[in-house]
Amino acid sequence: MKKLNLSVSLILIILTGSVKAQCVQTSNTVTFTGLDASNGTIYATLKDGNNNCNCTAVRFKPENTNTEMALSILLAAKIAKNKVRIDLIDEKSCDTAYRVYLE
After folding, report:
1. 0.70 exceeded by the pTM?
2. C-alpha–C-alpha distance, residues 49 and 83, integer Å
3. Distance from C-alpha of 72 to C-alpha of 76, rounded to nearest angstrom
4. H-type helices in 1-101, by residue range?
5. Is the pLDDT assigned to residue 86 strictly greater than 50?
6. In the predicted model, what is the mean pLDDT of residues 45-60?
7. What region does 34 belong to: left with phi over 0, alpha with psi -120 to 50, or beta?
8. Do the Cβ atoms of 88 and 54 come closer than 8 Å?
């Protein structure tokens, strides 16, 4: 079972890494974050960013990324008062966040 989980994780990392961000929004401060739906969707509100993607709120959905890891990074940023970079798959939808980085 561990080998299966590891294999699935590696495949997800490879697939997620191969998606090219259509929009990148930097220097965001996380103001509010948490579980948005029972399927694991994570919601976060943002301020102070460069707003390249016109998003003041984003959603990380399980079909796009590992939402548990995204929530961990968002919470760390909020607690430490660090800025984050958010990458979106679709530049026209703030509900397609799939990568988050501490800046």
Report:
1. yes
2. 8
3. 6
4. 2-18, 67-80
5. yes
6. 95
7. left
8. no
